[in-house]
Write a structure and sequence with these properties.
Elements lengths: L37 H15 L7 E5 L16 E4 L5 H11 L4 E7 H5 L3 H9 L4 E7 L2 E2 L5 E2 L21 H8 L3 E6 L3 H13 L3 E7 L15 H7 E3 L21 E5 L5 E5 L10 H13 L3 E8 L6 H5 L11 H4 L3 H10 L2
């Protein structure tokens, strides 16, 4: 496979953010995914979110596993840290990196196969521990690299080009709520108007932020009978809120009229029909969010938007009561205090 790098030259008049970086400073290699793949739209949304948040690229650590989704880190933030782990094991690597250096912004980019199948246990423990991260699942309901078999998130009865799924699906959003994630959202790859603010809010959130992004596979799972296709999501999208820019640590607000409908034109010229937030929805109520998801799932609707936010989140370092200094900057004296200190610790448990 031939990889083509982007040219170094750039127009001197490109807009810059407050740090003096242009949009190009947040880009990566040229994508080798299929033309029209929803994953590329997610990459573009991540680039825009980091640009608007004035994030220094070297402060970001991108981690992934195996799959089409796990190629994403190569397509953005070329000057940041990156690690491509083995299939389904990205959460463990991310947890270890986070414990060693809490000063970085961690992005775990995965897919429905990487997270809901072989990596389901890893996903569960990473979320329940409250690791400070943005966990993005690029969800297309199929195994794209192995020619389109159904993944664990494919809805029962969903049709591919060659088969009908007979298994019940795993809903990573519902699972994240049960496991104690303090920021839970779902979006659609073709709706940047919604996705970019969600990403910005997740990046500034301290704790486990999980975003499930429905991202149609144009090669194997973009037919009208698939619940992960462009057509199905446009027709069944139930947006719980309309999002705008969210300042770090600021209160999240919504601007809506209950029962109204907004037509959003996507980057490919198609239109997405969004129903705005119902007046009774409260993004701070975990139990209500789970109930809401189940009710609309029974109607065949895809609920998108900010589903749950803990107003007072804590991360793994708060749970473990670690020191503020990143562990990877400590010397041998601080990390190995000696035999007497170890004896004192052991004695305290007698």
């Amino acid at each position: 496979m031939t990889y083509i790098t982007k040219p170094k030259l750039r127009h001197p008049g490109l807009p810059k953010n407050n740090l003096g970086f242009t949009h190009r400073d947040y880009e990566g290699s040229i994508s080798t995914l299929c033309a029209g793949c929803g994953h590329d739209s997610i990459s573009a949304s991540l680039i825009q979110a980091c640009f608007e948040l004035d994030i220094e690229p070297h402060r970001v650590a991108k981690l992934s596993g195996i799959g089409c989704s796990s190629k994403t880190p190569d397509y953005l933030l070329g000057n940041s840290h990156g690690f491509n782990s083995v299939h389904g094991r990205m959460p463990s690597v991310l947890t270890g990196a986070n414990l060693a250096n809490r000063d970085l912004i961690y992005m775990g980019i995965s897919g429905d196969g990487d997270s809901a199948s072989i990596g389901l246990g890893q996903f569960a423990h990473c979320v329940r521990r409250g690791v400070n991260m943005v966990y993005i699942c690029e969800n297309n309901g199929v195994y794209g690299l192995t020619k389109g078999q159904f993944s664990a998130t494919a809805d029962k009865g969903s049709k591919s080009k060659t088969a009908v799924n007979s298994d019940s699906p795993i809903d990573l959003v519902s699972l994240a709520l049960i496991l104690g994630a303090t920021f839970v959202a779902r979006s659609f790859s073709g709706d940047k108007k919604q996705l970019i603010p969600l990403l910005k809010a997740a990046i500034t959130h301290r704790g486990s932020a999980v975003i499930d992004v429905v991202s149609p596979c144009v090669q194997f799972n973009n037919n009208p009978a698939s619940t992960k296709s462009y057509d199905f999501v446009r027709e069944h999208n139930e947006a719980v809120n309309r999002l705008d820019f969210i300042e770090p640590r600021a209160q999240i607000t919504v601007d809506y009229e209950p029962g109204t409908v907004e037509i959003v034109t996507q980057h490919d010229g198609s239109q997405l029909k969004l129903s705005k937030l119902h007046g009774s929805y409260d993004a701070r109520d975990r139990v209500a969010a789970m109930t809401y998801l189940q009710e609309h799932h029974a109607k065949g609707e895809v609920v998108t938007g900010l589903l749950y936010l803990d107003p007072e989140p804590e991360d793994l370092h708060a749970h473990l009561n670690t020191i503020a200094t990143p562990l990877n900057t400590l010397g041998e004296k601080e990390l190995c205090p000696g035999a007497k200190k170890l004896a004192d610790v052991n004695e305290s448990y007698r």
